[in-house]
User: Fold these one by one.
Assistant:
Number 1:
Amino acid sequence: MRLFAACLLLALALPAGAQIYKYTDAKGNTVFTDQPPQGVASESLDLPPANTVQMQAPPPAAKPQADGSATSAQSAAPYRVLRLINLPSEEALRANNGSFSVDVELQPALRSGHRLRLILDGKPYGEPSTVPRLQVVNADRGEHRLAVEVLSGDRPVQQSEVHTFTVQRVHTGSPALRSRP
């Protein structure tokens, strides 16, 4: 019973402790306080409710599947759109020095901590970058497969569709390039 009475008194004291008073001091300054001033006219203020933020639930833990692998909501593709654009079409790409650029289309925008890296012929190509314009330098002539992947640290997060194209380079031994006598 004593515990109940103590809790009741504390509960009644909480709203009184939350009251704010406003008054003007002798120097003309406005003062806000949680206790009513002695001998000075003060105004009791009713404050709006405090702002609150709902805590977001942590992502679900990985769930084992029948085949022994694990999946999680976070392993789902974080980008709705991830593709290479401004690539050569079915025609061959003429790049006499083997260098060309491709653009990456991403939706939503690249997240903080993520980087882009090309995959050329099934192997990582070049340094990861946050810039959505990537360059291939000195590619050999012939057919190539190109994709882009998103990395989080060194771990691949998502990969685009693979595009196949052909690079045409001038062959310096070609009879067409020899000078005529």
Number 2:
Amino acid sequence: MMPVHILANKGDVAERVLIVGDPGRAKLLSSLLQNPKLVNENRSFLVYTGKYNGVDISIATHGIGGPSAAIVLEELIMLGGRIFIRYGTTGALVPDINLGEYIIVAGASYNHGGVIYQYLKEDSCIAATPDFYILNSLVQNFQKEGLKFHIGNVFSSDAFYAEDEEFVKRWSSRGNIAVEMECATIFAIGRMKGVRTGAVLVVSDNLAKGGVWISKEELENSVMKGAKVILDTLSKL
């Protein structure tokens, strides 16, 4: 089956792919590649392919939420992608995580049902966890660069505006340190399709501290610093 959303050809997408939700972020991060080429812009799922440390790497947009991420991941796999690191933003659920810091995701909780249920076709669940070697490499490289990071589980939400007063307490009490929207789907499909996945998130807000948001300038600064570490990691996997 050929992709119907990412209108690229086999060979246009590298085996190593950095995936982000925001097409603007994909465009920004493409500046870190050598000779980046825009290989898809259909439906604003921007995909760039270039080199980093002499290695072919693509930067692709997966959109917002599990269903969008599932479509893009499936189609990138069709086009030759085999190693994926999600790089996005997240809201912290515990007070000791500060804005602009990083979360290297060790696993993702999710509500039963939705896109993962449809893949499984039965009333069961799957461990939504990243590839250990990607996780380990990310930890080592973030340590080496001296960037402040946390390792832990996140909750992958399907509804950005559905938080109630008990939301932070409910999900943090279950061992989750942050909330985002795509990791569980990406990890689960990665397991089912036999590809390797990982994720790094930049803390854009902290719900445990009242939901104060990072400034655009501070966020971009953290995003660019972290992206270099992630691209370096991808180039060596």
Number 3:
Amino acid sequence: MYPWTHAAFGYLLLVVLAVLLWRRVSRLELAAVVVATQIPDVVDKPLAWWLTVLPSGRSLAHSLVLAVPLSVLVLAVAWRRAHPEIGLAFALGYASHLLGDTYDALYYWRVEEFTFLLWPFAPAYPYDPSENLFEVVRAIELTGSVALQLGVAAVGGLVFLAHFLYAPWVRPTA
């Protein structure tokens, strides 16, 4: 998934959950979910592709070995500051990134591709380190499908921005 699709997926999950629970989402929850959806790639891709200190672009920050403790830590800090919903939004965003990176393997049940979730206890699934975001973007040809995807991304970004500007900074504590 591209960074904007990870962000959109996490945002969509947060909004659906909020609608189901009949609650309003705050700006800090929106920020937390979007930031958390980006962390795995912001950490792993440069360390694997450019600095070559990780075996794959899906290893350290894509591993549950880091994701779970980090999410629990953020939740604990948010809880201590009387806003656990922000910590939950962070955990949801992080989890949505990992789910977004596994949906194809889940659909086709290619379990060998799940090993990155337990790195370093299981081998990281190999990815071509030369395939970085800049090369991928440079290789995109503007077809009807790509134009549609860019249009949907632009509309989604505007919806998020409007939601962010309309939302309160934090949810009032009871």
